[in-house]
Amino acid sequence: MSLGSLRLSFRPSIALEDVLYRAAQVYLASRQEARALQFVAPLAKRLENDPQVYAKLIAGEAQLKTGKPREALSAFQEAQKLSDTWLGRLDIGRVYLDAGGICGSVFRV
Prior knowledge:
- The protein is 71% helix and 0% strand.
- The protein contains six helices and no strands.
- α3 (49-65) packs parallel to α5 (86-98).
- The chain is globular and about 35 Å long.
- The model is unreliable at 8-13 (pLDDT under 50).
């Protein structure tokens, strides 16, 4: 899939925040952190917790990609405070593993 052809199309069984989160991950994978953050910006403004969690996870993943593990960890922990998710736990574990803290990652995940 090319980034130019990335479209927001969803089936009724998939929530819009899921689509935006996955699209943002595609942009992160292609080193377009700013575009990924733009995709999830509307989610950060929503009142419900789940959309905000997705926005914080993408923000943390963008920080991790740009070599800022401390900021990434902070974003992931904020996401976990809103809702305890396996994605958040996985991302926190990745920060600890990248930093060489295998023990911290095992106990947190």
